[in-house]
Design brief:
The protein is an alpha/beta fold. It has 2 domains: 204 residues, 2-enoyl-CoA Hydratase, Chain A, domain 1, CATH 3.90.226; 48 residues. 50% of the residues lie in helices and 15% in strands. It contains 11 helices and 9 strands. It has a 6-stranded mixed β-sheet with strand order 1-2-3-5-7-9, with helices on both faces. Helix 1 runs parallel beside helix 3 and helix 9 runs antiparallel to helix 10.
Length: 271
Amino acid sequence: MMAEDTVVVERLPLGASNLALGLVTLNRPAQKNPIDWATIGALQSILDDLAKDADVRAVAVIGAGDAFSAGGDLKKYIELQRSAEDFRSFLDDLHALFNFIQFDLPKPVLALINGVTAAGGLELALACDVVYASVDARIGDGHLNFGQMGGGGVLTRLPRRVFQNFGREVMFTGAFLPPEPWAQAGLVNRILPDREALIAAAVEFAQSVANKSPLAVANMKITLNQIREVPFQEAIAHEIAVTHNYCLTSHDAPEGLNAFAQKRKPKFEGR
């Protein structure tokens, strides 16, 4: 882990095994961890590696310093938005990253909101599967405060994750709120005292996932996120197809049943 890196990664061990939580830290604390083009590329590369690492059973994203991420680098936007081609390419790369987290990364991803979270930082959290926040976190959209509008998915994802009226008010007013109303609205799963408690809770979560079949976890995560975006009947059909294929073709499904019948601990192999 190098201090000058835009994004850094650690593998936190889960017990005595080789299994780990991949802890990804946005590492520009002086600038409130902006999500610029370089950060997007670094995040994509790191998450690609963690997705392929069989020993990593969950991923958590946190910010260095007193912010999770204050969003895009607005100073760089001045130049970026002068080129239609460059700005569209930036948005395409940003969406590719968030879509990868939500639909392709085969492990649960936790957003650990440890402070200020705005705009692209909120959009990153919305792409994650689980959100924990510290008591001193302040979360908002904030695009309209600077004459911008959400382009990284907040207009689409936020109404699907929280009560619509709550999401609309937050986006229109540009307000930054503590974690309690976000928990009541359905985005924040748990509120914890500080950064250390956030990381400890993420390790605890990863430990609970680590003894499950990695293949079943991956199928569940991807299916949950895919069917949320389609009509009900299509979602049900997709769920049936994925479950049928997993139960009838995998090693881990019958292994879990046999272990239950034989009163032993299952030996999942992720296949």
